[in-house]
């Protein structure tokens, strides 16, 4: 697939405080993060959500799958609060 076949919508990055900083090949540092992109192929009407690590595009999901994933994360966090509080 050619890169010009994709239309970038929204990108978001969340820094990870407990992951070590990564050294790149050019000796620069990269702060570890989770990233999400909302992408749409130029000839497709349905967007896809990509969830990745460290600036990589990661895995593709439908908006419904991404929503379910986010809700499952929130459920885990809310359950954890009950264990610690």
List the helices and strands and how they pair.
Layout: E1 6-15, E2 22-23, E3 29-30, E4 33-41, E5 48-53, E6 59-61, H1 63-84
User: Order of SSEs, N→C?
Assistant: EEEEEEH
Largest sheet: 4 strands, antiparallel
How many domains make up the coordinates? 1
Neighbour order of strands in the largest sheet: 1-4-5-6
Task: Give the CA-CA distance, first to last residue.
Answer: 49 Å
Which percent range fits the helix content? 25-40%
Helical stretch tally: 1
Let me know the number of strands. Answer: 6
- Structural class category: alpha+beta
Low-confidence stretches: none
**Apparent shape:** flat
Provide keyphrases for this structure.
85 residues, alpha+beta, 1 helix, flat
